[in-house]
Fold Putative dehydrogenase.
Amino acid sequence: MNDEIRWGVVGPGRIAENLVRDFAVVDGARCVAVASRAQSRAQDFAERHGIDRAYGSYAALLADPDVDALYIATPHPQHHAIALGAIEAGKALLVEKAFTATLAGAQEVVDAARAAGVFVMEAMWTRFQPAVVRLRELVADGAIGEVRSVQADLGVLKSYEPTDRLFDLALGGGALLDLGVYVVSFAQMLMGSPDTVTAAGSLFDSGADAEAALLLAWDDGRTATLTTSLRCGLPGQARVFGTAGWIDVLPRFHHPDTIVLHRNGSEPETIARPHLGGGYAHELIEVDDCLRAGATESGTMPLSDTLAVQAVLQQAAEQLGVRHAEDPDALPRSRESA
């Protein structure tokens, strides 16, 4: 591994636009290449962000010997095939959430990464936000006693447009994979994998889920109540309840700067922990640190947690009548086939 970790971006969309700006505040890492299915789109992205090389196919970027790590930011169903190709090429991976469209797809990627000894991590930036790091420290130190319940919501009001990625089932559309992944991952981070999942909600005409309420339950009586929506704007707040108090994670909880600690019998304590850059820097730093240490998984966002979250999302989707599928043609081998 070179002193400088050289990154490539697969899929120059909105999230990638935000993430690449944070390389400016990450020491020892640089984005050197970008790939799109359209050469012109890749070239435009590269010019705007000062990136050296632009490719008109994903396969060309995977074959670039001067790229150490890839950030995959394509629609969810495309992650599976691209990740498998990247693992075969020996590239370390940061894969946007939701990690894949299906649990089986996630398991296949995880199995391939572990077999090859290649680093792979889900890009769940929430876990690396300084305020969330502090929350986990407080919970581990027993500041609120035993955690018994978690509440979290995340929703936006979007006008229905069946061809838009958010509403197109073939592109992994729906609230669960786009926003629900945050509330589920937050609960799983604090409480582990639930014993039962109960979901209710509604669908768009396209068949994608429009909104969902999830009740996660554990056999010892612990619960998590989670809400996600593309029909309603929601506050984006989370609360962690314990036997000795609770912690509010102020909006929006998936990239917060502030938490409020409420200990039983004490005045609330407001704790501010601002993020670096746009908030994406922390997950980039985690990948870079892991690569330099020779690790193949993150201790903060391990692949076992990714699989646990995918399992909950799939159970919820199935209860709503939604069936996601991976895109087998997500990694065209030439520009012509793109």
